[in-house]
Design brief:
The chain is mostly helical. The protein has one domain. It is 51% helix and 0% strand. It contains three helices and no strands.
Length: 73
């Protein structure tokens, strides 16, 4: 299994190749007027041994676009 540090570095590199505005627009377009939801299948708790790319995308959107990506309970 990949370490969290290696995973984060690799995934951040992938995200850096994308335009967050384009991805945000595409997700909203695909949702057809509904609020898009990024779903994770990892069982909580999410931590450095059980990590989730969805939260990393949410943080990327928040930092890049100055938006708030809420967590659903």
């Amino acid at each position: 299994m990949m370490s969290f540090a290696d995973f984060e570095r690799a995934y951040t590199t992938q995200l850096s190749r994308l335009d967050p505005n384009d991805i945000w627009f595409d997700l909203h377009r695909l949702a057809g007027g509904a609020e898009p939801v990024l779903q994770c299948f990892e069982k909580p708790p999410i931590d450095e041994t059980n990590f989730c790319h969805r939260r990393m995308v949410a943080e990327w959107f928040e930092k890049s676009l100055d938006v708030k990506v809420s967590e659903l309970e």
